[in-house]
Design brief:
Length: 159
C-alpha cells in the first residue's frame, strides 16, 4: 500500500507492506522496481504515522524517526543502511567512514556508495548525510538539489 505527500523537496510516494515502511520514492516513479506497491491507502496507520513524522521533520520539529522499517536488499546493503541510521540529524559522514564502521577499509568506499545509492527509504534512512571524502556533495538518487536541501534543513545551510 502507498500514499503520496507533498514536501519541501517535492512529492514523495511512501510505501508500506506488512506493517512497515518499505520505500520512500521521488518522482518520476520507476515502474518495475520489484517492490510490491499495492493499492493507495492514505488511511493506513503506518502510512499516516510516516506522513506525520515526515511532516514534523520538514517543519524542523523532529530529528529522529521512529517508524517500523523493512527495506529490502542484500545482506551487505542491510548492513550499510543500518550504519546510515547511526549518522544522526545534522551530522555527515563519508563513504569511508561508513566502511570503517562496518569493519572494512576505506577501499570499500565504492561498495558502500553503491549500497547507499540503493537505499529504498531515503530521508528516514539518512543516505543524504553521506558526503565525499573531500567534503563535497556527491550523488544522490533524489538529485543533488534535494540532498543539499535536506542537509540545509538539518544543519542551517552547512553547504
Amino acid at each position: 500500500m502507498w500514499t503520496v505527500i507533498d514536501s519541501p523537496v517535492g512529492e514523495l510516494r511512501i510505501v508500506a507492506q506488512a506493517g512497515a515502511l518499505t520505500a520512500i520514492e521521488f518522482p518520476p516513479y520507476v515502474v518495475g522496481t520489484g517492490r510490491p506497491l499495492g493499492e493507495r491507502a492514505d488511511a493506513d496507520p503506518v502510512l499516516l504515522e510516516a506522513t506525520r513524522q515526515l511532516t514534523a521533520y520538514f517543519d524542523g520539529v523532529l530529528e529522529v524517526f521512529d517508524l517500523p522499517l523493512a527495506p529490502v536488499g542484500t545482506e551487505f546493503q542491510q548492513r550499510v543502511w543500518k550504519a546510515l541510521l547511526e549518522v544522526g540529524f545534522g551530522q555527515t559522514a563519508t563513504y569511508a567512514d561508513i566502511a570503517r564502521r562496518l569493519g572494512m577499509t576505506a577501499a570499500a568506499s565504492r561498495a558502500v556508495g553503491l549500497a547507499n545509492g540503493r537505499n529504498p527509504i531515503p530521508i528516514v534512512i539518512g543516505c543524504h548525510r553521506i558526503i565525499g571524502a573531500d567534503g563535497s556533495l556527491t550523488g544522490y538518487a533524489g538529485g543533488l538539489e534535494r540532498k543539499q536541501a535536506l542537509l540545509a534543513l538539518e544543519s542551517n545551510s552547512l553547504f
